[in-house]
Amino acid sequence: MRPGLAAGAGARLITELAQGAARARLAPHLGGRVTALSLAAPGREAVELLLPFPEDTSELLHWPKGGIYPLVPYSGRIRDGRLRGEGGEVALRPHPDAAPHTLHGPAHRRGWELRAVTGCTARMVHDHPGDDEWPWALRADLAVALPAPDCCRLELRLENTAGIRAPAGLGLHPYLTAPDGSGLGLSAAREWKLDAAVLPEATAPAMPGVAWDGAVAGPVTRQLSDWGGQAVLRLPGQGILTLQASPGLGHLVLHRPAGVDWLCLEPASHVVDGFNLHALGVAGTGGLWLEPGAVMCAWMTLTLA
Q1: What is the DSSP string of 54-67?
Q2: What average pLDDT does the segment 172-187 reach?
């Protein structure tokens, strides 16, 4: 067994990265997930920053909450499982937990391959051939690194391998620990009005931006755009966690259910249902189509101070 790999069977091995006191655990076979992450601010002990994902699970259709997973080739839901755009309308298989809508794309429920691993970096790859969940072939690439004990960097890449133009989007979905007394600092120039299905309303007037600086009480789900790529989570007695995302991840979902000690900050390249909204002429959705062989990339860092 190679150093850095936890006990397991074949492709179901868990990979652990280390940098000083920091640790990140990766499960390629569980949808390319980061199952656990602990970082250490200078002069401090390591802090567990994610709701742990159960590594012994075999259920990914109704996946357990926890960890960080890649959103490929889109974030959120597609209304009624119908994607409108170039060439007409395409029917997609709904997800049973969101029917008649889809949910978060197929890649985080499929196996990924570990292609490279050192002590503090790893790369996972997923080839999607095209099916009734997403008919366009693609290759996704997720690199995870611990460049320092206080920082984790994730780089996500999507290549259109379908041979035709295809819709494409990227995002990351972390479940961040947020015990009582935690405070969130976040601002965004635009907020979208959501309907009962937690989908942006195409005909709703634009809502003003938000400037959040304080506690986040659940249940809350907010869809934000033009958020500047940075959010700060103040963890009582543990430090300040900064989430920073690349400019291409200009949309953000904030989600926290009631009665939990975690929250989700999900940066993405497009607003939820962005392809359909774009086809309806709504501006600022981030919904785009890639040429054959074209690539889109994004990154996110988590830094503890």
Answers
A1: -TT----TTPPS-S
A2: 97
| Residue of 35, 28, 71, 1 whose CA lies nearest to 251 | 71
The answer to whether 50 and 57 have CB atoms below 8 angstroms apart is: no
Confirm if 10 and 3 have CB atoms less than 8 A apart. no
Question: For 66-105, how does the pLDDT look when each residue is reduced to its tens digit (9 = 90+)?
Answer: 999 999 999 999 999 999 977 789 999 999 999 999 999 9
Q: Where are the alpha helices (DSSP H) in the chain?
A: 274-279
Residue 189 amino acid letter: A
**Least confident span in 31-40, 43-52, 82-91, 115-124:** 82-91
Stretch 20-39: mean pLDDT, rounded? 98
Beta bridge partners of 303: 151, 242
226 forms beta bridges with none
Q: How many CB atoms lie within 10 A of CB 280?
A: 12
User: What's 201-270 look like in SS3?
Assistant: CCCCCCECCEEEEECCCCCEEEEEECCCCEEEEEECCCEEEEEEECCCCCEEEEEECCCCCEEEEEEECC
Using alpha carbons, select from 165, 159, 188, 164 the residue that is nearest to residue 265. 188
Q: Which residues contact 281 (CB under 8 A, 6 or more apart)?
A: none
Residues 6+ apart with CB under 8 A from 75: 104, 105, 169, 170, 171, 173, 251, 253, 266, 268, 269, 270, 272
Closest by Cα among 181, 136, 177 to 159: 136
Instruction: Assign domain 13-304 to a CATH class.
Output: mainly beta
Note the pLDDT of residue 11.
Answer: 55
* Interatomic CA distance for residues 31 and 71, integer angstroms: 10
pTM of the model: 0.94
Pairing relationship of beta strands 47-48 and 166-168 according to DSSP bridges? unpaired
What type of residue sits at position 15? T
